[in-house]
Design a protein that fits this description.
- There is one protein chain.
- This protein is an alpha/beta fold.
- It folds into 2 domains: about 140 residues, ATPase, nucleotide binding domain (Nucleotidyltransferase, domain 5, 2-Layer Sandwich); about 180 residues, ATPase, nucleotide binding domain (Nucleotidyltransferase, domain 5, 2-Layer Sandwich), CATH 3.30.420.40.
- It has a 5-stranded mixed sheet, with helices on both faces. Strands 8-7-6-9-10 form a 5-stranded mixed sheet, sandwiched between helices.
- Helix 9 packs parallel to helix 10.
- It is globular.
- The protein starts with 6 loop residues before the first strand and ends in a 27-residue tail after the last helix.
- The structure holds 5'-O-[(R)-(carboxyoxy)(hydroxy)phosphoryl]adenosine and zinc ion.
- The site of 5'-O-[(R)-(carboxyoxy)(hydroxy)phosphoryl]adenosine (KG4) has 21 residues, from helix 5 and helix 6.
């Protein structure tokens, strides 16, 4: 890899992972991650205040680890990138404060980047350059989106998103209903393999004609998701079993719930790519680890002639390498750095790939 490609350090702290990654162009040099996941287990979900405090403790050791692994010093860097949003307010603030301090101390350019777009940018670190135009399906505990990425550094559009719970959140809530531990995704994934996905017909959110419309006249929620009705249907089913004194068929509930989630996600993502003329789809987020999602998405993409790219699990979950990868792309494309005068934005839309410099 050429030394002339930008050497960029990326910092991620939007949820419960403190990540520091270092890339040179599209070459991954380090990806250090500390997670506070275990501290949230007894609460059954991420507690923002606990996550923020864990970021404070983890940031400097994680930074040191990344620099040591990459064998570079802060002086060697061409730029620093940091997640400015979307994410949890206090958690974002820790990474941003750290990145601003580093940029100030070293005089390096600072990019305030979008977390969602970075989930796409990480795809460049594996399997060759990303095509100029592609679709992205992001599914995690905090987000569920379909993006159209016309240019990674300058033209990203949100095609659809969840109107209530995120996909991973639905897994976590249903796991809790079934008395299973947090995080629910891996447990339900495993149990589902022992159950019948057709045992219970759970609702497919926002798939009725009135929400979908047609290709010519798209409905308001054609590419959107909703998982709260599904969660309620699972809760009713479980209550009904209890009221009848019947045993809850946990594996069948897990398999049927999972099939409902995965069916809708894959159907809408493939529909969006087909209708928008996108022939590559990139999958990202923690739920990308789901075995049924990967299987059904691969099958449906193949039928539709769409090339599916799924980064390895450690690059799908939140990490610093994805922020560094997007930063390197911004440097390479000549995008102006943000500088130090910016604030975090918990609702930063994907159309803002990186924050512009203050006027
Ligand atoms: O991207 P991620 O690590 O961080 C957050 O967004 O918080 O995603 C974590 C989410 C959790 O909701 C977890 O239940 C879900 O991803 N998850 C899964 C699987 N592994 C993790 N969901 C379904 N199937 C899995 N195998
Ligand atoms: Zn994420």
């Amino acid at each position: 890899m050429s030394q002339s490609e930008p050497l960029v350090l990326g910092i991620e702290s939007s949820c419960d992972e403190t990540g520091v990654g270092i890339v040179r162009g599209s070459e991954l040099l380090a990806n250090a991650v500390a997670s506070s996941m275990e501290e949230h287990v007894r609460f059954g979900g991420v507690i923002p205040e606990i996550a923020s405090r864990a970021h404070l403790e983890a940031l400097v050791p994680t930074l040191r680890e990344a620099l040591d692994t990459a064998g570079v010093t802060l002086r060697d860097l061409d730029a620093i990138a940091v997640t400015a949003g979307p994410g949890l307010a206090g958690a974002l603030m820790v990474g941003v404060a750290g990145a601003k301090a580093l940029a100030l101390a070293t005089g390096k350019p600072l990019y305030a980047v979008n977390h969602l777009v970075a989930h796409v940018g990480v795809g460049a670190l594996e399997g060759g350059a990303l095509p100029a135009s592609l679709g992205a399906l992001l599914v995690s505990g905090g987000h569920t989106e379909i993006l159209r990425v016309t240019s990674l550094s300058s033209d990203v559009e949100l095609l659809g998103s969840t109107i209530d719970d995120a996909a991973g959140e639905a897994y976590d809530k249903v796991a809790r209903l079934l008395g299973l531990p947090y995080p629910g995704g891996p447990v339900i994934d495993r149990l589902a393999s022992e159950g019948n996905p057709k045992a219970i017909r759970f609702p497919r959110g926002l798939t009725l004609g009135k929400f979908m419309g047609t290709a010519e006249e798209p409905g308001k929620h054609r590419y959107d998701f909703s998982f709260s009705g599904l969660k309620t249907a699972v809760a009713r089913f479980v209550e009904d079993c209890r009221a009848r004194g019947a045993e809850i068929p946990v594996a069948d509930v897990a398999a049927s719930f999972q099939e409902a989630v995965v069916d809708v996600i894959t159907r809408k993502a493939v529909l969006a790519c087909t209708e928008q003329g996108l022939d590559t789809l990139l999958l990202g987020g923690g739920v990308a680890a789901n075995s049924r999602l990967r299987e059904l998405l691969a099958a449906r993409c193949q039928s539709a002639g769409i090339t599916l790219r799924v980064p390895r699990p450690g690059l799908c979950t939140d990490n610093g390498a994805m922020i560094a990868a997007l930063g390197a792309r911004l440097v390479a494309d000549g995008v102006a750095p943000t500088g130090g005068a910016f604030a975090t934005d918990t609702g930063l839309p994907p159309s803002v790939v990186s924050m512009p410099p203050a006027a």
